[in-house]
Amino acid sequence: MSKTSIRTLRARQILDSRGRPTVEVDVELEDGTEGRASVPSGASTGAAEAHELRDGDKSRYEGRGVLQAVAHVNDEIAARLRGSDAMQQNAIDATLLELDGTPQLKRLGANAILGSSLAICRAAAASARQPLYQRIAELSDTARLTMPMPMVNILSGGLHAGRGMDVQDFLAIPASAQSINEAIHLISRVRSAATEVMQRRGLSTLLADEGGLSPGFETGREALQLMVEATEHAGLQPGKDIVIAIDVAASSLKGPNGTYRLAREGRNVTSEDMIAMLEAWVSEFPIISIEDGLDEEDWAGWEKLSARLGGKVRLIGDDLFTTNLGRVRRGIEAGIANGVLVKVNQNGSLSGTLAVIAASRAAAYAPVVSARSGETEDSFIADLAVGSAAGQIKIGSVRCSDRLSKYNQLLRIEEQSRAEFAGMSAITLKN
Ligand code: PGA
Ligand code: ZN
């Protein structure tokens, strides 16, 4: 028994930004230090994600309760980890995966396992009197701290906005920013300008799940035009100060016979049509990053998409890769995509997530640390992005405390750590 041995592990059910239950875990070490973490939850989830265990009891929170996952932490996981050294994160995570014993963490639940994994990392940092990002840097393959370039949701569609638009995210990247502080300021100007432009046009400015706006346009082109208009209205230059990223979340657009359903346009299109549409957008607008342009199982389409656009823009796999080392490796071998969205709860443990970031970076696939559409006030991913030197972060809009807890933590880290800002270097293709 050492002072960093785990004394207690306790979980509870709390509510996330959509008012849905999620798991929060508290850890206490023998030296009295504590760590707390909570687990995010997606809406446009990938089929290969680690399993989120929900109670299914329709009389409570529409079946979304997580009391079984909570009980697994309080009983099995606490019993197994009591006395384990919190400084041995890899060993702890390996024990958790082994204890579950299923590939997708279906037995104990990835929410139970991830909550424990993250809380233990926080407790270890507290015990060593280290900032969390420093502890994560020690666990990563890089010792260099890096402030990430944010890609920030301005307009929302898909499952985050009642399918008001077919494409899920239209995001702004503050290309001319030299610090995270300036990056957030530039984005904030664009976000406010977008509200003004929409108000002028009589469009609703109510918030979508990630704090973005949802003008409900029928076509992606109209949304891209609004992105440009908002940038200009903010007194900034599109393509220079602000560049555009999109997340099509194409796995949520499944149509009949392998087609894609563009419901707002009222048509079904082929994989080839989707690629042609994206190509047209890239030639017309300053788009430098496209996430999930095609379905998670359309690997043949992804090959074509990568051949056509991979030399020009970042092609990010979210549902495609689900922060799963096997799927990322398969993608790298096939030369599919050139970027990886990194979501801790898709993977299920901190060590597993860091392994995905390391493998991505080694293959020059840009890692983008990302929040989920359902978030809590936990700012863990801000420290994760800095400590792992991922280079990019995707949190949602600069609205709502579940999003701002992360942006505000980045501001604190920048002030405290003096870590270098990645800027566009994390995104620019080096070929
Ligand atoms: P999700 O969406 O958290 O609902 O999966 C985020 C994303 O698709 O990037
Ligand atoms: Zn996505």
Count the DSSP helices: 13
Helix content: 25-40%
Low-confidence stretches: none
Look up the CATH topology of the largest domain. Answer: TIM Barrel
Question: Could you give a short account of the major beta sheet?
Answer: 8 strands, mixed, barrel
What is the ordering of alpha helices and beta strands?
A: EEEHHHHEEEHHEEEHEHEHEHHEHEHE
CATH class value of the largest domain: Alpha Beta
What ligand molecules are bound, each kind once? 2-phosphoglycolic acid, zinc ion
Q: How would you characterize this protein structure?
A:
The chain is of the alpha/beta class and 431 residues long. The chain has two domains: 124 residues, Enolase-like, domain 1 (2-Layer Sandwich); 281 residues, Alpha-Beta Barrel (TIM Barrel). The chain is built from 13 helices and 15 strands. The strands form four sheets. The protein has an eight-stranded mixed beta barrel with strand order 5-6-7-10-11-12-13-14, surrounded by five helices. Strands 1-2-3 form a three-stranded antiparallel beta sheet. β13, α12 and β14 form a beta-alpha-beta unit. 2-phosphoglycolic acid (PGA) binds next to loops. 2-phosphoglycolic acid binds next to loops.
